[in-house]
Specification:
single chain; alpha/beta; Rossmann fold; two-stranded antiparallel sheet
Length: 258
């Protein structure tokens, strides 16, 4: 799908994207909440089916290359079912703390229950929060992460500014998100998978084709690599850069508060 405007640009100041639809900004949060409440119970299964399990490799690399050490305090936004938090806990150790935050209560409960079932209790905190208005003082965290969540935020610029605000000086922010495929030959294959295969998988395994149609559309509306890098710089981050994974299917954006 082509557009004269950059990805992620709404039609006017009062609307924003919900997939390929333009909706009032004050409605998007409710619509996104409906999507993730619907998919929460099957979220891990669907991630495996959609990515053929590759999302686990992306997440491990994302955490393995993060600036984090034992004893650090980390905020994991859009923490969902806890995949990133579990990996981070291995890095921060018993003296560190991971705050797992998500705007969606159903996703947060799935993550908390999953952690408890794995015997992971100490060192984790759970808070339902909006990434656009984080309930923490300035300079609270050594690392802030958000994986596969930024594209669902209504005001991405505001969320990036909030991530910058709560970081300590010297801290790092990392964004793992679907991005723009870099290989022309692969784009038609990726589009077919996104718009033909994913909704059918959603209908078959989660009885919900519409939510997975939205997720595919939301990827196309997310700012591509260079645009998101510029947004991070505008939010105040320095030494901002990105690394493409799997031909740009996903990208890791990194910025620092110096």
């Amino acid at each position: 799908m082509t557009t004269d405007k950059p990805a992620g640009t709404p039609e006017n100041d009062n609307t924003t994207h919900f997939g390929f639809r333009d909706v009032p900004k004050d409605e998007k949060q409710k619509l996104v909440a409906g999507v993730f409440s619907s998919v929460a119970g099957n979220y891990d299964l669907m991630n495996d089916l959609m990515s053929l399990g590759i999302h686990r490799v992306w997440k491990r690399y994302f955490v393995a290359t993060a600036q984090v050490k034992p004893g650090d305090r980390v905020l994991d936004l859009a923490g969902g079912t806890g995949d990133i938090a579990i990996l981070l806990q291995e890095r921060v150790g018993k003296d560190g703390t991971i705050v797992l935050g998500d705007i969606n209560g159903d996703m947060l409960r799935v993550g908390r229950d999953r952690m408890i079932n794995k015997g992971l209790v100490n060192g984790f905190e759970y808070t339902q929060m909006n990434a656009e208005a984080l309930p923490f003082p300035d300079n609270s965290f050594d690392l802030v992460t958000i994986a596969f969540g930024l594209r669902n935020v209504t005001d991405k610029d505001k969320a990036l500014r909030e991530m910058y605000r709560v970081l300590k000086v010297g801290g790092q922010a990392r964004v793992l998100e679907f991005s723009e495929v870099t290989q022309d030959w692969f784009k038609p294959i990726y589009d077919f998978h996104s718009f033909q295969v994913l909704p059918r998988l959603g209908k078959l395994f989660a009885q919900d084709a519409d939510s997975y149609q939205y997720l595919a559309e939301s990827i196309r509306k997310h700012p591509p690599q260079e645009q998101l890098k510029g947004m991070m710089e505008t939010a105040g981050f320095e030494r901002s850069h990105y690394k493409n994974l799997s031909a740009g299917i996903v990208a890791i954006h990194t910025g620092y508060k110096l």
